[in-house]
């Protein structure tokens, strides 16, 4: 343990020091809150139990016996069998037959999964992620334990971890949660994903439980980064202490503001000025000066540890309920190893992508200090109607995270957006859709079943889709490079994307798994993803995401099916149906919200609301829900008009004339 940590342990009242004697002089500290040996042991045991549960979930990712939910399997059966086409209308007898069919195929499927997880690549991935996790876990448990007990006691308790989950009530009982529908949804999602672990600490007064959460957050920061596993640990701790996600989010905001304020006070420090001058070029990279400078000032990058302590950061953060010296001790050697990106490194990352930038999403009325967070979210659009849509769908990201939009290959995505709009409003698509709807086996759609006329006109969309798809592949690789090299600092990252934006996330996560880069990603949320749904691919994804992995799909997304028709659609498309046989992947049917692929860009907030996303802007939810309703109404009116014209003209003839094809081609050329 470093001398700085030794001093911290002393002031915090660790078993190796006499910090309890400092209470009157230094104010509240963790050992004064946990005023009995039993309370101090309870915290160490709770942290050990939570990390053991996290490890078990990691192992489950690679367990061939862990499969998706029964509902997901029934949906898959319904896609392949006309008699199960409407799952919600099934009788008990029909549902029973569906379940029986699952059981009949169980042995064969299990053998296939066992073969998959025994492949060398997957075995190596499992070994690597567990090694990374175990190293992190040991550091955390001992760090917490040596502060509240002795190091020896902490090591002993960490080996005895046997987590017991607390009972979950149907109605949320977390304190501080509002009764509004969206808050209940968030609470439900939080309890489901991060179920509370039994602990005697839950009986303590709320103020003390909040202070425990504050303290553990600062202890985790003292480990020299704030990675995704640390954040997930805090979410488990939050539910286990009977607190709301809002309490944790507000605490993170206070800490971020405190660190930034402290960093600003260092402006006269010679060493700080020297570092700022050295990093001036890096801060001008495309992601925006505010983004990089903010990360550096928070202290997550840039090696600002010593100046932070020298400036009296404990005094700045004293207002969150901890004594000044105790707070400084918790922070310890904060992020001393972080290094801002050099301009040469950025040029290397972007060599294959002409346009790649993190665009800060500014909140009206927020100052520079108020905008900084310990966590970030990156929203990625999959096609564009105009350049503003790089940012617009992601204004719904709430105040708990620092939001960015990823801009990549603007021209290619605008061309794709124009092509999609022209295609779906054409008579060609109207005919095709009417034929598709007649078919009862959607999963069997292939090039041979699509109307011939539409296939003749397919190059209208195929070329811009192919170009944008290739660019998304490259952008995903660049994003992985940037995150691995901490372009956004040592902060947990949430990735959200629709269509080809989800493809960027998919490629990024595959690359992170390939390069054994763990602890970077907190959540990955993919909407209408044009990517494979194979369990092997999603096992890799699950291994590099510490928090939630969400696959939002719509079986009625005929556009995605058409765009994907030349690929191996029989092997599954994540945006069309659930991902099966991987523990920890959340499948969410959004077919009622998204009837067509082009509606995803108007549905980001309603979908995030449905899944219980932790950080979402209520005003943007209302705006997008209204906008989505208007878009749906426009589509229904257009379809009704096209249906009437069809009956008056060509009747039921599904063919498309050469003249119609040329007309659509001309429309594409004109946009």
Structure characteristics:
single chain; 671 residues; mainly alpha; Rossmann fold; 2 domains; 29 helices; disordered C terminus
Outline the structure in words.
The protein has helices spanning 3-12, 23-26, 30-33, 37-61, 70-80, 92-117, 120-148, 151-158, 181-193, 206-221, 228-240, 245-264, 270-278, 289-298, 305-310, 313-317, 324-331, 343-349, 368-371, 410-424, 427-438, 452-456, 459-484, 500-514, 535-543, 558-563, 604-610, 618-648, 658-670, and strands at residues 356-360, 376-380, 402-408, 493-498, 521-527, 549-553, 585-589. Helix 25 links the parallel strand 5 and strand 6 (549-553). A seven-stranded mixed β-sheet has the order 1-3-2-4-5-6-7. It has two domains: 3-63 and 123-278 and 303-331, no CATH class; 343-670, 3-Layer(aba) Sandwich (Rossmann fold), CATH 3.40.50. The N and C termini lie far apart (64 Å). It is globular and about 85 Å long. The longest helix has 31 residues, at 618-648. 55% of the residues lie in helices and 6% in strands. With 671 residues, it is mainly alpha-helical. It contains 29 helices and seven strands. Helix 4 (37-61) runs antiparallel to helix 7 and helix 10 (206-221) runs antiparallel to helix 11 (228-240).
User: Helix count?
Assistant: 29
Q: State the total count of DSSP E strands.
A: 7
| Averaged pLDDT | 74
For the record, the CATH class of the largest domain is Alpha Beta
CATH topology of the largest domain: Rossmann fold
CATH architecture of the largest domain: 3-Layer(aba) Sandwich
Q: What is the distance, rounded to the nearest whole angstrom, between the alpha carbons of the first and last residues?
A: 64 Å
Fraction of residues in β-strands: 5-15%
Helix share bin: 40-55%
Query: Which geometry do the CA atoms define?
Result: globular
| Biggest beta-sheet profile | 7 strands, mixed
**Major beta sheet, strand line-up:** 1-3-2-4-5-6-7
How many domain modules? 2
Could you list the spans in which at least 5 consecutive residues all have pLDDT below 50? 1-27, 168-179, 279-313, 332-346, 440-444, 649-656, 667-671
